[in-house]
Amino acid sequence: MLKNIIYFLFFLSPIVLLSQQDPFLSFYKNQMSIINPAFAGIEYDYSLTFNSRNQWATIENSPSTQFFSISSKREKNVGIGLSFVSNKAFIESRTMTYIDFSYKLQISSETNLFLGLKPGGSFFDINFNNLSFNTDPALTNYSKFNPNLGIGFLLQSNKVWLSLSTPRLFNSEGDGIINSYATNSNIYTAVGINLNLKDNIVLKPSLLARFTEGYESVLDLSTMVNVNDRFEFGGNYRTNNSLSGLFLVNIKNFRVGYAYETSTNNGGYNINLNTHEILLTINVNKGGGGVSEVKEETE
């Protein structure tokens, strides 16, 4: 009983303060269509990506998030896909489901501009039945659906890409004590570059910035090294006090990755706030080639 109450009080603070934020990802570069629909179908005829993120793994009922996206390159410069995020923390859960559309405009022989549209919505749920110490009849279960719409832009060349998006244009408001479920729209901007260090070795630094009204901006600074288009390894630093180590391997049609994230500030709690994240991607081209990540051209 006392242990559950301590967990409840521990989670109450970050849930109220941070629930308006989208879940974070260490492998954000591999799931960009979650935040920017312009990424749908930009590289492969068919692409499926799944992430599972177990935050603060040593704590019972800690936040757990699953990310899923599928996209397809269609005819006439069109891409289409589906993005899905399921986030559960203690007694509350949020599920976001969106359809992703992209359209390619060729700017030059080496540069394309992609325009994206993301219609869909979010399901919110609070289940007080999971509280073993709940004796207050005023605490009743709550659920709600909020439709929304997102837009995005992607400028991509052989070596540089630049992204600007908001996955939700409209804010949603909480009801009474459910203010933690109010959701502000976020604006994301990201940039990355591929630097050929030597034969078959590519350095891939990137930056992702998140801006949310009423909250401090958060930056992700990531650097990956690609070796022989087979292995990738690197790290990610997030300005909300987290540091990650990442590893990826490409095996035929599959890409498998693991990230270990640790907090540089536990807020005064004597708790090990480590996070585990796994990634699985399947990329297929009809021609049978290029099933792993497209190899960057060298000058």
Which descriptors apply to this entry?
single chain, 299 residues, mainly beta, Porin, 14-stranded antiparallel beta barrel, 52% strand, disordered N terminus
Word description of this protein:
The chain is mostly beta strands. Helices cover 6% and strands 52% of the residues. It has one domain: Beta Barrel (Porin). The protein contains one helix and 15 strands. A 14-stranded antiparallel beta barrel has the order 1-2-3-4-5-6-7-8-10-11-12-13-14-15. It is globular, with a radius of gyration of 20 Å. Residues 1-20 and 289-299 have low confidence and may be disordered.
**pLDDT averaged over residues:** 82
Strand order of the largest sheet: 1-2-3-4-5-6-7-8-10-11-12-13-14-15
Number of self-contained structural domains: 1
Work out the number of β strands.
15
Q: Note poorly predicted spans.
A: 1-20, 289-299
The gyration radius over C-alpha positions equals 20 Å
Helices, strands, pairings?
Blueprint: H1 2-18, E1 46-54, E2 64-73, E3 78-89, E4 92-106, E5 112-126, E6 142-156, E7 160-166, E8 186-193, E9 195-198, E10 201-212, E11 218-227, E12 231-238, E13 242-251, E14 254-263, E15 274-284
Antiparallel strand pairs: 1-2, 1-15, 2-3, 3-4, 4-5, 5-6, 6-7, 7-8, 8-10, 9-10, 10-11, 11-12, 12-13, 13-14, 14-15
Short structural description:
The protein is mostly beta strands. It is 6% helix and 52% strand. It has one domain (2-284): Beta Barrel (Porin).
